[in-house]
Prior knowledge:
Blueprint: E1 2-7, H1 10-21, E2 29-33, H2 40-50, E3 65-72, E4 75-83, H3 92-96, E5 106-111, E6 125-130, E7 137-142, H4 146-152
Parallel strand pairs: 2-5, 2-6, 4-5
Antiparallel strand pairs: 1-7, 3-4, 6-7
Helix pairs in contact: 1-2
Amino acid sequence: MDNRVTSTTVEQTRAWGKQLGECLKGGDVVALIGDLGAGKTAFAQGVGEAFGVKGPMTSPTFTLIHEYAGRRNETDVRLVHMDLYRLEYPEEAEVIGVEDAFQEDTVCLIEWPEIIEDYLPEDRLSVEIVGSGEQPREIFFRADGNAWEQRLKNMI
């Protein structure tokens, strides 16, 4: 499955994130792909809004991982937001405990997931944001399998 939407503003990118967030459930892993300034963190903030995250949701560029308490459909869900831009080697994923976030009660958003490709679960959604600066963004949702397709059908 490969779906595409367009975003012309940061607010619209957040809104697409919120719409995706409303489709997510515990155990989901979302790989956020895009250049610096593409809008990955804005998209993640929208997901956080769908989960009722309180307070500012900022990029974990220096801390690598931020964890938030969220709630969806009357169920508590941990929202883990990772930014792996600073990792140099895939093995560092083990040291910082990336795989510990792949739990049934957790939604995991990963910026710069390419470096840990071998550690990522196969059942994941990739969201690629193309564009930067003042230009519109093309947002591609890519996943294999009917389960994701059904969940995203009404969103896009």
